[in-house]
Design a protein that fits this description.
Helix content: 40-55%
Distance between the termini: 39 Å
Largest sheet: 7 strands, mixed
Strand order of the largest sheet: 5-4-3-6-7-9-8
Radius of gyration: 17 Å
Number of strands: 9
CATH topology: Rossmann fold
Length: 246
């Protein structure tokens, strides 16, 4: 039996159970995911993703893996930048999210590849991608170090990883207000829009349990990434970590 435990929000659960519970969260919110992102962030998530895309510096002909790609916000932009000579793979562990993303991109006339994968054990050859991105997905991974190591393995030498994720708010006077918003208002919005407050309570808890900026930077370096840095956005509510395989 698997006796090792991890956190699901503030609750300790067996490792194998977390995957199931995270899947239930995204099965519940998949069809309203984009709407909830706009409501929760007042549309600011679009600016966070725009910054990440600019930081990526994707060029024609490159191969891009967009992990936890959800409804395809990043993938659709990368597809335009790599052109027909390149390749974008929209990957997610959750079939519901992957289906929503696939339907959205097909409706917009964007043809890319899709893969249902676990970030901890990516089923791609070593040195396959010029860029790997994971936006708002790493905090849901059970073994984050295994996921980082797997990303490093499939990245090409000279390639880049970008991790866009909620992080630690650095503006101390705002922390009490941020906590009220996270634990009171977000679940209420979730209840009204998706009929599911628990998933958005988990969201707030998972953010608090995720490694902060410096901790994540050290974990990236520990698996081999070099020239690692991060950019705080919106006072550290979100951070974009960058690392290279050299």
């Amino acid at each position: 039996m698997d006796s090792e435990k991890t956190h699901f929000g503030f609750t300790q659960v067996p490792n194998k159970e977390k995957v199931k519970k995270v899947a239930e969260v995204f099965d519940s919110v998949a069809t309203r995911y984009d709407l909830m992102n706009d409501l929760m962030s007042c549309g600011v998530h679009r600016l966070w993703k725009r910054f990440t895309i600019a930081l990526a510096g994707v060029k024609s002909g490159q191969r891009v893996l967009d992990l936890a790609g959800g409804t395809g916000d990043l993938a659709i932009k990368f597809a335009d930048k790599v052109g027909p000579e390149g390749e974008v793979i929209l990957a997610d562990i959750n079939a519901s999210m992957l289906q929503v993303g696939r339907e959205r991109l097909l409706n917009e006339g964007v043809l890319i590849n899709y893969a249902q994968v676990n970030a901890e054990n990516l089923p791609f050859a070593k040195n396959s991608f010029d860029l790997i991105t994971i936006a708002f997905g790493l905090r849901n991974v059970t073994d984050k170090d295994a996921a980082l190591a797997s990303m490093y393995r499939v990245l090409k030498p000279g390639g880049k990883v970008l991790i866009l994720e909620f992080s630690e708010l650095k503006i101390r006077p705002l922390k009490p207000f941020y906590d009220i918003y996270s634990f009171k208002i977000l679940p209420l919005i979730g209840k009204i829009v998706t009929k599911d407050s628990d998933s958005y309570r988990y969201l707030a808890e998972s953010i608090r349990m995720h490694p902060n900026q410096e901790n994540l930077l050290k974990r990236m370096e520990a698996v081999g990434f070099e020239r690692c840095d991060y950019n705080n956005l919106t006072g550290g509510v979100v951070a974009v970590h960058r690392g290279y395989k050299l």
